[in-house]
């Protein structure tokens, strides 16, 4: 078994170009896209009366971490949107709002959603105060404190399977594109280390090994372990570069970030053996792989945050996509500061997908005649 | 020693091998001849326990190998039809790898590798990456790798496809030497009848999944004992000549090539005069008319009505 691994690694050292290419692409895209539009610096023009600006809505807008809402006159706001200087603008009243969308982009949808959430929160809180007849600031603060403790210690504890139920959704383009592109490109790297199994079977290298005293399971373990190692090295290289060179701090949980990548890489190795078992030949593999990888990236939220996806079918499909859960665990650790308990479910799902796909993949591989 | 009994393999849509019976004795070189798609590779894959037959049995030393092929696998050396090597590794690294999976190591492995490198004539190039090898060198290494564990039975699936004549001769000589010096039993498939004719004691001929002839070279040629092959040569043909030949009812089969036409006729018939007359009348200049000793090619033509390499 070690022999196969060494042979593979030696071949890899002589021919590391696919690996290097996809590593470089991940890094390149993450830097390019990540630095081109960090939402934290995006200004969104807002119009509203003085009264609104002083109201709780105004405060909530000011405190929002995702966008920088800037008060403007109505003409200025409209002009900025029309000329494309801003992707969206907002008109706010005490109980109602209007979003002016210039470009129908991920960003403008996100602005709309953010505003909607702010209003829902504030209005809910106002109703609460009214119901409790709280008028002074101290009374309100007391209610707020109670509310916060209640939120932290709910009567019913519900495990969250996904961010989507979370209201405070933070979108940080830099880390998002880093995660997205890493998870996306590593699919290629891994898949192209699994594909040779097909060629080796066809050419007879596997026949030779089958006739030798080697065991079947050793052949699979060695091959898949190799794919795993190569895939994992790639994500390690990328993340190390971003940690120590670019200076991303991964929420102070760098090691955990690296660890939660393990189930994802494993699931992609399994997915690759599954595809390899299904395709008829290399050409088919070369056709299927990009289609699959790109749709996984789109559905799983590697290109844009999955939080803005509203289509039910896409959201349903996302549940069968390892990349969705890969993004979730990464964001969970490095952005949302999830506890281990909260990470457990997506991690288990990734392992489950991995075991299932590998089981079916190897079974199909054994049944095919070549 | 090794027997295939009523062996059949059906893939989804193709019957690749139909009810084939063969036997191989120790120390023989047995040829399996047939055109592409005849079912040779499928037959020897079943024989070497790599493909499970749809029906039938493979027996080695009187034991069935279908469920428990271990004793056969131990003594088998396989040269697959494709180049089954790691192309990014050197010749030496490939030999080491395949030697180790058979449990060879240390000095023993070292010695064996040197011996094999000598036999296949690649000692000088052992440190070069296989990818850079010529077709012939790859084929030689493909054979060398199968020799490392001293197999008693060597199965070679078209080991000379697509290489230059020197490399091919080298390989044929190597196979013959292995057989003579080490009493290695060899099963050799090919669609080149010259190779089989040169190497093999006994021959099986397959076509479209069926075994259509078997026996020693002479026995097989006896199939043609009541016929003569006549070779007619010219620089070029004209339609009238060919047409009139085709119209002669006593010509049983006819194969037209660029500069040679082979016709098969009953033995006691003298065709020389007739052919010469037709040539004269259709204004064709002939180079020669000869009676040919029958070849395996002719046997194949006789049995199937087609040439081997169609
Ligand atoms: N794995 C397979 N699946 C389906 N058909 C196959 C497979 N292998 C061989 N065949 C078919 O079986 C027939 C015999 O093939 P093969 O044994 O490779 O012939 P040969 O080695 O004599 O050229 C061919 O028609 C081929 O297409
Ligand atoms: Mg073949």
Automatic annotation (TrEMBL), chain A:
Mode of membrane association: Multi-pass membrane protein
Subcellular location: Cell membrane
InterPro entries tied to this protein: ABC-2_transporter_component, ABC2_TM, ABC2_TM_bact-type
The entry's keywords: Cell membrane, Membrane, Transmembrane, Transmembrane helix, Transport
Pfam families reported for this sequence: ABC2_membrane_3
Any one Gene Ontology molecular-function term assigned to this protein's record: ABC-type transporter activity
Domain ABC transmembrane type-2: 136-368
One GO cellular component term noted in the UniProt record for this chain: plasma membrane
Segments traversing the membrane: 12-33, 178-199, 220-246, 258-279, 286-306, 343-365
Entry-linked PANTHER family: MEMBRANE COMPONENT OF ABC TRANSPORTER YHHJ-RELATED, TRANSPORT PERMEASE PROTEIN
Protein family: Belongs to the ABC-2 integral membrane protein family.
Name of the protein in question: ABC transporter permease
From TrEMBL, chain B:
Source superkingdom: Bacteria
Membrane topology classification: Peripheral membrane protein; Multi-pass membrane protein
Origin species: Oceanobacillus piezotolerans
Family as reported in the entry's similarity comment: Belongs to the ABC transporter superfamily. Drug exporter-1 (DrugE1) (TC 3.A.1.105) family.
Location in the cell: Cell membrane; Membrane
PROSITE patterns: ABC_TRANSPORTER_1, ABC_TRANSPORTER_2
Entries under Pfam families matching the protein: ABC_tran (PF00005), DrrA1-3_C (PF13732)
SUPFAM superfamilies: P-loop containing nucleoside triphosphate hydrolases
A single cellular component GO annotation: plasma membrane
Name of the protein in question: ABC transporter ATP-binding protein
UniProt keyword list: ATP-binding, Membrane, Nucleotide-binding, Transmembrane, Transmembrane helix, Transport
Residue ranges of every copy of the ABC transporter domain listed in the record: 2-233
GO BP annotations listed: daunorubicin transport; doxorubicin transport
GO molecular function: ATP binding; ATP hydrolysis activity
């Amino acid at each position: 078994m070690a022999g196969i691994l060494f042979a593979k690694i030696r071949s890899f050292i002589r021919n590391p170009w696919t690996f290097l290419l996809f590593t470089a692409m991940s890094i390149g895209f993450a830097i390019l896209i990540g630095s081109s539009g960090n939402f934290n610096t995006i200004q969104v023009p807002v119009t509203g009366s003085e009264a609104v600006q002083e109201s709780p809505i105004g405060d909530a807008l000011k405190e929002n971490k995702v966008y920088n809402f800037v008060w403007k006159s109505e003409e200025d706001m409209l002009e900025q949107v029309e000329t494309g200087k801003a992707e969206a603008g907002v008109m706010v009243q005490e109980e109602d709002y209007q979003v002016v969308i210039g470009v129908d982009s991920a960003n403008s949808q996100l602005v709309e959603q953010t505003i909607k959430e702010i209003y829902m929160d504030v209005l809910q809180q106002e109703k609460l105060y009214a119901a409790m007849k709280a008028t002074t600031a101290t009374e309100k603060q007391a209610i707020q404190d109670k509310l916060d403790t209640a939120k932290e210690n709910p009567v019913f504890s519900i495990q969250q399977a996904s961010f989507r139920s979370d209201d405070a959704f933070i979108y940080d383009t830099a880390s998002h594109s880093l995660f997205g592109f890493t998870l996306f490109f590593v699919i290629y790297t891994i898949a192209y280390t699994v594909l040779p199994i097909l060629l080796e079977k066809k050419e007879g290298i596997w026949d030779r090994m089958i006739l030798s005293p080697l065991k079947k399971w050793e052949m699979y373990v060695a091959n898949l372990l190799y794919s795993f190692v190569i895939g994992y090295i790639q994500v390690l290289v990328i993340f190390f570069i971003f940690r120590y060179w670019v200076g991303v701090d991964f929420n102070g949980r760098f090691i955990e970030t690296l660890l939660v990548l393990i189930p994802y890489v494993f699931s992609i190795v399994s997915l690759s053996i599954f595809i390899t078992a299904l395709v008829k030949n290399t050409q088919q593999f070369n056709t299927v792989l990009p289609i699959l990888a790109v749709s996984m990236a789109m559905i799983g939220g590697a290109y844009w945050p999955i939080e803005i996806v509203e289509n039910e079918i896409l959201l349903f499909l996302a549940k069968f996509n390892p990349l969705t859960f890969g993004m979730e665990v990464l964001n969970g650790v490095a952005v949302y500061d999830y506890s281990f308990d909260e990470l457990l479910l997506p991690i288990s799902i990734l392992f489950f997908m991995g075991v299932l796909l590998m089981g079916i993949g190897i079974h199909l591989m054994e049944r095919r005649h070549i | 020693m090794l027997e295939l009994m009523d062996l059949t393999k059906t893939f989804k849509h193709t019957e690749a091998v139909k009810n084939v019976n063969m036997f191989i004795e120790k120390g023989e070189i047995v040829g399996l001849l047939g055109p592409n798609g005849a079912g040779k590779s499928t037959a020897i894959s079943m024989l070497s326990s790599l493909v499970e037959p749809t029906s039938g049995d493979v027996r080695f030393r009187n034991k069935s190998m279908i469920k428990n092929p271990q004793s056969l696998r131990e003594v088998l050396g396989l040269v697959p039809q494709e180049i089954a090597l790691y192309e990014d590794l050197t010749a030496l690294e490939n030999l080491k790898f395949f030697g180790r999976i058979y449990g060879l190591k240390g000095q023993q492995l070292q010695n064996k590798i040197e011996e094999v490198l000598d036999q296949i004539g690649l000692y000088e190039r052992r440190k070069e990456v296989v990818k850079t090898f010529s077709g012939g060198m790859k084929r030689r290494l493909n054979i060398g790798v199968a020799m490392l564990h001293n197999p008693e039975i060597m199965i070679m699936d078209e080991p000379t496809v697509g290489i230059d004549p020197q490399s091919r001769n080298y390989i044929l000589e190597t196979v013959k030497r292995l057989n003579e010096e080490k009493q290695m039993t060899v099963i050799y498939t090919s669609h080149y009848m010259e190779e089989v004719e040169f190497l093999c004691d006994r021959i099986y001929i397959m076509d479209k999944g069926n075994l259509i002839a078997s026996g020693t070279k002479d026995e097989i040629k006896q199939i043609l004992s009541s016929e003569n092959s006549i070779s007619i040569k010219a620089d070029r043909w004209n339609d009238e000549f060919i047409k009139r030949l085709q119209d002669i009812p006593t010509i049983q089969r006819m194969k037209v090539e660029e500069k040679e036409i082979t016709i098969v006729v009953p033995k006691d018939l003298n065709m020389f005069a007739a052919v010469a007359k037709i040539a004269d009348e259709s204004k064709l200049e002939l180079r020669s008319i000869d009676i040919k000793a029958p070849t395996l090619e002719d046997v194949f033509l006789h049995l199937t009505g087609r040439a081997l390499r169609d």
